[in-house]
Amino acid sequence: MNRNFLSTALSLTSIKALASALLLACSVGLVHADADALTPYRAHYQISHDGLSTKAERILERDGDHWRLSQHAKLFFFKVDEESKLEVHKGKLRPLSYRYENNVSSKKNLELTFDWAKQTVSDKQAKKPWQKALKPHFSDQLSAQLQLREMLIKGQLDSQQNQTVVKRKGKLKTYGISRIGEERIETAMGTLQTVKLRKHRDGSSSETFIWLAPELNYLIVKLEQREDDELYSMNLLSAEFDTPSR
After folding, report:
1. Three-point CA angle 76, 80, 83, nearest 5°
2. How do 66-75 and 78-89 pair as beta strands?
3. 10 Å Cβ neighbour count for 207?
4. CA-CA distances (angstroms) from residue 173 to 28, 33, 140, 141, 229?
5. Whole-number Å distance between alpha carbons of 108 and 97
6. What is the model's pLDDT at position 243?
7. Residue 192 contacts by C-beta under 8 Å, 6 or more apart in sequence?
């Protein structure tokens, strides 16, 4: 069983071993988000493969001058928690820390520290602690998504964009993000106009398509990852936005 299937939306992996999953009904209502600024929210998603599914919750909140994006997913006894903390530097978001934790395999856990003063990124909690030079364009799995949304909100996303994500053992993976166009899609929250993106990596057979809704503060409303003949999907069930702190 690949236990990463409950991981972050943009790195969704296999859920073949799901025996069954009951989708809990969500009754959270929608409050329209601020169109020109990141807005705190709580959202619920359905993650599916081959008719089998589970649920994930994602929360974005302000923490003083910082932002915190977290994701929580659970299937029976198996739980995955992720959290990224970011700051605004020269008008742009950059990560400060990232944590990935599951209650089954500690070998998969990850705890990144982005030290911009020392220009290092490290995981000192790893079995074999490591540290490497930090570059301005480095991010983690969750902060990369929030950075994309921020660029869309501010109209700063180019038709082609690269993102470099720090992985376990200090490995780096660079993904190309392409803006395909606009598409109107049906969701659990009604018909939404979306911006469609494609995420891919050279040398990989996997490609991911992401739909983000401008009227929902460019929230991810749909995601599909295709790898060989397999299709994995994530769909928004509900979202609730808070008034952003100023």
Report:
1. 150
2. antiparallel
3. 15
4. 36, 32, 10, 10, 23
5. 17
6. 62
7. 184, 185, 213, 215, 216, 221
The single residue listed with the structure tokens 């029976």 is 76
Q: Hey, what are 224's tokens?
A: 């599909």
Query: What's the pLDDT score for residue 242?
Result: 87
Structural domains of the chain sorted by starting position, each given as residue range(s) with its CATH number in brackets: 3-241 (2.40.360)
Contact 81, 68 (CB under 8 A): no
Average pLDDT estimate for 68-88 = 89
Residue 14 CA to residue 6 CA, distance in Å, equals: 9
Q: Specify whether the CB–CB gap between 164 and 135 falls below 8 A.
A: yes
User: Which of 14-28, 96-110, 147-161 shows the lowest mean pLDDT across its residues?
Assistant: 14-28
- pTM value? 0.81
Across 47-56, 123-132, 163-172, 217-226, least confident range: 47-56
Selection from 184, 67, 50 nearest residue 58 by Cα: 67
Question: Is 93's pLDDT higher than 90?
Answer: yes
Helix runs in the chain, H state only: 141-153
Contact (Cβ atoms closer than 8 angstroms) between residue 209 and residue 224: yes
| Cα distances (Å, whole numbers) of residue 26 to 3, 61, 216 | 25, 20, 17
